[in-house]
Amino acid sequence: MFTSEGPTLRELAVQALSSVERGYDLLAPKFDLTPYRTPDRVLDAVTRALRPLGPFAAGLDVCCGTGAGAGVLRQVCDERVTGVDFSAGMLAAGRSALAGDDRSAAGPAVHWVRADALALPFAPAFDVALSLGAFGHFLPRERPVLFAQVYASLRPGGRFVFPVGAPPAVGSRVYWSLLGFDMAMRVRNALWRPAFVMYYRTFPLPDVLDDLAGAGFTVRLLPLTELGSRPDGSPRARMVVATRE
Questions:
Q1: Is the Cα torsion angle 215, 205, 17, 4 positive or negative in sign?
Q2: Which of 7, 15, 16, 99 could bond 23 through an S-S bridge, CB–CB 3.0 to 4.6 Å?
Q3: Superfamily classification of domain 39-167+204-244
Q4: d(CA 59, CA 124)
Q5: Of 46, 64, 56, whose CA–CA distance to 117 is shortest?
Q6: What is the distance of C-alpha 92 from the center of its chain?
């Protein structure tokens, strides 16, 4: 799963025993060399699904990390892109990583803002907000606050978009892997402080859709067909499109 240039087992252990913010500050220089970075095929699928929903002037990458989502937004936004994250290390890595991303080199510059996604410091100034791979860092009770903050940052008609994968089949290897990871994290957080909030099974789509509606969004789902289909023919991934009417 990890390349020879990626983080060592010791570095991962130190990160896992830190707070979320400190852990990502430590991991940031090697984050893009880990499996945690959103794969290019997912980025490409999201980019293609976003283009017909535009045009967009201003885009916001929520919990931007090293800027994978900002790279997508540079391809679909005409005027400006902002990445927001609470890890200074990840923001620094994002500045460096995006500077060498040829796929998005023609897009607008990215402005990097350090802030908590539960207290976004923005007026309603964005046409589209995107988030990739960050929702496991929020407990279910925090989700309505997060969605309300994104809603308040969007202009009327603005879209909040993010991909979601189909849940793994009960009893499959992936199912047991995710369940085991979440159980290990709960034990870790019960025994060790500061807590490191990262769970894979706390973002069920029905609850997410309810929370988006509660924040004021109108929601629809777009299949990301190029990411494949399940044995029953349903898509392996969809893109949630939540609109501030």
A1: negative
A2: 15
A3: Vaccinia Virus protein VP39 (3.40.50.150)
A4: 11
A5: 64
A6: 17
